[in-house]
Amino acid sequence: MSSIDAATGRSPEPGDGVIRAVEALRRLLGPRLSTTMAERTQHSRGEGLPDVGMPDAIARPQTTDEVAAILRLCHEHRVPVVAFGAGTSLEGQVAAIRGGISVDLTGLDRVIDISADAMDCRVEAGVTRKRLNEELRHLGLFFPVDPGADATIGGMAGTRASGTNAVRYGTMRESVLGLTVVTPDGTIVRTGTRARKSAAGLDLTALYVGSEGTLGIVTEIQLRLQPIPEAILAAVCSFRDLTGAVSTAVAALQSGLRMARIELLDEVQMDACIAYSKLDYPRGPALFLEFHGSKTGVREDAETFGVLAADYGGGTLIRATETESRNRLWKARHDAYHAVMALAPGKANMGTDACVPISALVDCLLETKADVEASGLVAPIVGHVGDGNFHLGILFDPNDDQERLTADALARRVGLRAIAFGGTCSGEHGIGIHKLDQMETQHGPALDLMRRIKVALDPEGIMNPGKLIPDA
Amino acid sequence: MSSIDAATGRSPEPGDGVIRAVEALRRLLGPRLSTTMAERTQHSRGEGLPDVGMPDAIARPQTTDEVAAILRLCHEHRVPVVAFGAGTSLEGQVAAIRGGISVDLTGLDRVIDISADAMDCRVEAGVTRKRLNEELRHLGLFFPVDPGADATIGGMAGTRASGTNAVRYGTMRESVLGLTVVTPDGTIVRTGTRARKSAAGLDLTALYVGSEGTLGIVTEIQLRLQPIPEAILAAVCSFRDLTGAVSTAVAALQSGLRMARIELLDEVQMDACIAYSKLDYPRGPALFLEFHGSKTGVREDAETFGVLAADYGGGTLIRATETESRNRLWKARHDAYHAVMALAPGKANMGTDACVPISALVDCLLETKADVEASGLVAPIVGHVGDGNFHLGILFDPNDDQERLTADALARRVGLRAIAFGGTCSGEHGIGIHKLDQMETQHGPALDLMRRIKVALDPEGIMNPGKLIPDA
User: Which residue numbers delimit the FAD-binding PCMH-type domain (chains A, B) (predicted)?
Assistant: First the structure.
C-alpha cells in the first residue's frame, strides 16, 4: 500500500500491487479505467480545503456487479479503494491519501424504482439529490435532505448528510431504509428492508450510513420520501442580538412548533448577504424560516413564531408564500458562502461543523464569537439552529502559513468546544482527514469499538484507508 | 458453557466456570447475588410464549461500575450473561437458554438528568417508561415511545421498541441519542452525544439499539424528549371493511397529515373489544387515532381525516379531546390483549410482528386473513398501520401439540410473507429465539456481517448467547 508524501500531497510511485490491479481493472473495464493526470487530479480532492491525495487510477463502473468485480481485484492486490461521487465532500473524504483506485460511481445513475404508494424509492449511488427531486415532483413527493450541494445520494449516505430540512424531516440516518453494499472482498449484501421500521437484527444500515466508505461501497439506497406539503410559508425575522435569535429558536422547539427550516445567520453573515444579494432586510442577526403544512396551519405557525420572537427582540416577520418569493428569500441563504467569499477576494474559507445540545447553543455561540474576535480573523456564522448545528466560515490567506495555522487552531477549538458542551465536532460534514485528531476526545474508549468493527468488516484495510478512524 | 435441555427447558448442572463465577460474584455483591429457585424461575422468561431458560444465578448491580465488575468476572470464567429488565420482552430475549448469570438491571433506577432546555434526559437502564413520564410531566415534556408494557428504557433500547406513537415520533432508533455500554470484557464506553445529530464516526448507538444484549449491557440511555402538545384529539372511525380502513390510513400518510397514532383493529378484534370493554362503537374494523398540535390544528386534522375516511367507507369520527374521554377510548385499545384472551379462556396467545411497506399493507393483511381462516384458528389483528406494522394474536391450546404446531406454522408464514412483501418479520418485538429461523431469509449474506460484528465485539460469545444471530 502506498502512502501520502506530506510535502507534495502526492502518493509515491505505485507499487507492484497497484500496477497489477490497474492492469486487471483495465481488462475488466476497458476505457472506463483511466490513469490520465487530468482524471487523477479531478479525483484527488473534494470541496473545502485543498488537501490532495492522487489516486493511481479511476474506475468507472456502471453496475453493482462491476463494483463487486473491482473490489475483488483490489482486495486480491491489497490496493486502497476510495469511493467518489459528486466530489462535494468537505473533509477530505475522497482524497486518495494512500493512492489506489478511485471508484467513480456517477455511472450508477439509475432511479431504480419509485413507489408513490409506499412513499419510498430505490436509487443507485450516483443519482444526485436534485435529479431525484425532479423525478419525484410530478408524484407530489420530495426527498427532504438538503445539504446545499448537489451531492450524490451515495455520498450523502456515506457522510450521514443533513442540512436545512433536518429539523423536521431528519438526516440521512432517518431517511435511509436500506442499502446495497459491496464489501471489501466483493460480496454484494443488502441491508434493511422497505418497511418503515424493523427490529430484526443488528442495524447494519445505520452502521454503513456515515461510514465514509471505510467499510464497503454503497451502490444502492432505499430512501423514505415525504409528501410535498399543501402549503409552504417562508419568513425572515431579524433580531437585535444573537442571543435573542437563538433563544427564539430554542423556545419555538420547546413549544412543539413544527418548523421545516430554521436557519441562523449572524450579523457578519447577514451584512455579507445584504451586500452580496442586494437585500433590503434589516441588519443584525436573523432567522430564516420555513413552515410546511396546510394553508391555515402554516399561517398559524408563523403567527405563533412571531409572538415568540417578539419576546426576544425579534422584528416583524417578512413572509413569502409564493414559490418565486420563497426562492428569492432562500437564494440569499444559499448564497451565504459566495457572499462571504466576496468579503475578502483571494482568501480561502475553512468551514467548521460544531453541533451541540440546543440548551448549550447560546453559550457555545457566544464563546465561539469571542474566540473568533480574539483570533483576529473574520468568520461569519450560519447555523441549522433547530439541530444545534452551526458552521463558521473562517477566512484566511492560503499563502500565509501563519494565518492558516491561526485558522486551523480556531477550527480545532470550535470542535473541541462543541464536544465539551456535550455535542459533536461534526454535525453533518463527517470526519474525513480533517477531524481525525478530534476522534479520541470525541469518543474515548468507544473508538476502540469502531476500530474492531473496521477490522472485522475490512480486514485488509483497503477501504478508504486513513479516514474516519485514526490509526491506533 | 452449559446448554439448554430441550425436554425440560432447564440448563444442566452448572460447570466449573459457572460455579467459580457465582462464588466470585457472591463476594462482589453479597446478598445481591441470588441462586434461589424462586429468583431463577422469575428470571427464566419474559412475556409471550412460555419458553424457559433457567439462569444459574441472578446478579443485582446498582451501578455501571458493578455491571463492569460482573462482566469482567463472567468474561474471565466464560459464563453466559443475560440482561434482565422488566421481563416484558416477547421473543424469549431474557431466557437464559445456555444458563449463566441473569443481570437484573432494575437496581439501576436513577433518572440521572433531565434538561427541559435541551429536551433530553439521561436515565439508568432500569428506569421504566411510565416512571420517566411521571417525572417529566411537570416540565411539559414526555417520552413518546409507548410499546404498551411498562418496560424499562434499557430493555426498550435493547429490542428497538416502538409502539403506538412511532408514526409521528419514531422508535427507539430515533429517540436514543447516546448510551453507556459495558462491553463483554467489562470496559465502560459512551456512545453518541447530546447533540441531535452527529456525523462523527461509526454509529455505535444505532448498532447497540436493537442488539438484544448480544454485544454488551446498556446501563445508561440519553433520550430525546418531546414537548407535550397544546392539544390532543383522539378519535375512532369504523369502516365497512379492512381494505377501506387501511386505504384511509395510507391516503392520510400520503397527504402529509400528521397523526400521532393510527391503530387498526380488525373486525374480530373489535368484536372482542366491544364485548370486553362494553363499548358502544359500531362493529367492523376500526381505526383508533390521535392528533397532536394546536387546538385549531388538531380540529383541522381530524376534519381532513374524516373527509378522507368517507371516501373509503368510513363512518363518522367519534372524537375525544378531554383527558378522561381520551383515556376511555385508548383503554379499549390497550385492553385488546385481555379482550382476546377473554374470547377463549384457557388458550394461549402467540403474537406475530410483521411490518411491510405501507403500499403492501392491504394485500399482506388480506392474504394473512385468508391464511388465518384456512388454518382454522382464531387470530385477531391489531396494527400500528402508520408504520405498516401489525400483530396477530393467534389463539391456541397450549396442551394440544397439534394446535401449537398449526399456530407455529401460521406465525412463521406471517413473518415470511412480510419479508416477501419487502418488509420485516419483526417491526418492534425483536428476534430473541423465536424468529432466529427467519434471519437467513430476512438478511441473506448480510447475516455474515452481523456474525463478524458479534465476534469482533464479543469474542468469547458470552453475551446473551443463542439469541438474535443464528449460529453459522
Answer: 51-228
